[in-house]
Amino acid sequence: MIKIIIADDHSIVREGLKQIIADTPDMTVCDEACDGTELIQKILLNKYDVVVLDITMPGANVLDVLKQIKKQRPTIHVLVLSMHPEEQYAVRVLKAGASGYLTKESAPAELVKAIRKVSMGRKYISPAFAENLADTLLSDHDQPIHTTLSDREYQVLCMIAEGETVKHIAETLFLSEKTISTYRSRILQKMHMKNNAEVIHYAIKNQLVQYRGLA
Questions:
Q1: DSSP 74
Q2: What is the spatial distance between Cα 125 and Cα 147, in angstroms, rounded to a whole number?
Q3: In the β-sheet with 100-103, what is the strand arrangement from edge to edge?
Q4: One-character DSSP codes across 139-180
């Protein structure tokens, strides 16, 4: 029996995931958490096989949560569930310790398949993204410039590209506005850009964010 803890800040999403898993005889949802802090506390006290982890919970950044899980409970397998396309975060969360990445648009059967695969110690990404990743690795082209950013810089870049203000980004990440402004300056410098408009254009062109009518 695969023992699962679901970490998502939306109770409706947690209930939906529990219902899908309830119909699967070799899996059981043992627990749930509504933020990263609660999740870390629970995995320190209890034993689980798989964490189904939402990428955008309040509190600690998902990359920091993944690193804490791998440090505290290295045998737990983490499947990251996200509303963001794989091109935006999949590689980074896998590098941070996740075993798999699945978008919330995926079919219930895909979720079950992904949980089974990561529970066996294997990695899971969609076949389409795996093909795109292989093409990128085998190509002779230089890697996109955003891959040179740190995890935090990349997160700030995506939030800027989604139209978030410095103040809102600071509140979301529990950092000061000055710190976010410093990250923004580093991003512009590393990517040889002058302003947010260029960041937005680059992010849309490289499919780092979904198009929302931004110019």
A1: T
A2: 19
A3: 27-33, 2-7, 50-54, 77-82, 100-103
A4: SSSPPPGGGGS-HHHHHHHHHHHTT--HHHHHHHHT--HHHH
How far, in Å, CA of 123 to CA of 101, rounded? 9
Q: What is the pLDDT of residues 50-80, one digit of tens each?
A: 999 998 877 677 888 998 999 999 999 999 9
2-134 CATH pick, 3.40.50.2300, 3.20.20.30, 3.20.20.70, 3.40.50.1110: 3.40.50.2300
Q: Distance between CA atoms of 191 and 194, rounded to whole angstroms? A: 9
Alpha-carbon distance of 159 to 166, in angstroms, equals 9
Q: Say which DSSP state 25 is in.
A: T
- Say whether 33 sits in a helix, a strand or coil: strand
- Amino acid letter, 39: L
Number of H helices, E strands in the chain: 10, 5
User: In the chain, what are the domain boundaries?
Assistant: 2-134, 145-205
Q: Rounded CA gap, 145 and 149, in Å? A: 8
Is domain 145-205 given the CATH code 3.40.50.970 in the classification? no
- Residue carrying the six token digits 């209890």: 46
Task: Kindly report, residue by residue over 1-41, the tens digit of the pLDDT.
Answer: 999 999 999 999 999 999 999 989 999 999 999 998 999 99
